[in-house]
Design brief:
Elements (H helix, E strand, L loop, with lengths): L8 E7 L5 H14 L4 E6 L9 E3 L5 E3 L1 E3 L2 H6 L6 E4 L9 H13 L3 E7 L9 H9 L2 E5 L1 E2 L6 E2 L1 E6 L2 E2 L15 E4 L9
Parallel strand pairs: 1-7, 1-8, 2-5, 2-6, 6-7
Antiparallel strand pairs: 3-4, 9-10, 11-12, 11-13
Helix pairs in contact: 3-4
The structure holds zinc ion.
Length: 193
């Protein structure tokens, strides 16, 4: 594993809802700040669950962040940062190819790029941007939640509408909290119709 700060690298923090991805991103960025490395934290404008201009974990930890809609806005504001963090990457309004090219460009310039995001949508299908970044990343950490049904490790985000699995033709991106999503394991996950 290459030493963080020794050169460009991509780190992917992935997993299902409630697996602690943002918590882990905040932990790494606090270390960066303690080391006084120039850094920028970005958060998609679409994710408005918590206060605007911050990233926040479900447990309440927060860090200031710049709201963006696309990877091009990240590239335009990367400036002289040594470390770039992007939370909830799956919410960016870009193609997987554009996200991949943008993050590769930053890492090729010598930056440490840390992204956090869902690896699967509510249909348990891979998010294309995350999938491609994982393939080229120097470091991938897959986090787990606990299945609300059986207590096993959960890897899937069960989306519920009125307590029933969401239909497969529902929109992919719906910002929500406890009322809409549950962490479930492979056995307890219920596909929609
Ligand atoms: Zn389960």
């Amino acid at each position: 594993m290459t030493r963080p700060g020794a050169g460009g690298r991509i780190e992917v923090i992935c997993g299902c809802m409630y697996s602690g991805k943002t918590e882990e991103l905040i932990r790494r960025m606090r270390q960066v700040m303690i080391a006084r490395q120039p850094c920028r934290i970005f958060t998609p404008r679409l994710d408005t669950r918590y206060s605007f201009g911050h990233i926040a974990s479900h447990t309440g930890a927060t860090l200031g962040a710049v709201p963006v809609s696309s990877i091009n806005e990240v590239l335009a504001q990367a400036d002289a940062a040594q470390v770039i963090a992007i939370d909830e990457l799956h919410f960016l309004e870009d193609t997987a190819e554009a996200i991949l090219a943008g993050c590769q460009h930053l890492a090729d310039q010598g930056m440490r790029v840390i992204v956090a995001g869902l690896d699967q949508d509510y249909r348990a299908a891979p998010f294309p941007g995350m999938m491609q970044l994982m393939a080229v990343a120097e470091q991938v950490d897959k986090l787990y939640a606990i299945c609300v049904r059986c207590g096993a490790y959960a890897t899937r985000s069960q989306r519920l509408i009125n307590g029933r699995p969401a239909p497969t033709d529902a929109p992919t991106l719906v910002v929500g909290g406890l009322d809409l999503y549950e962490a479930r394991c492979r056995s307890c996950y219920e596909p929609g119709r």
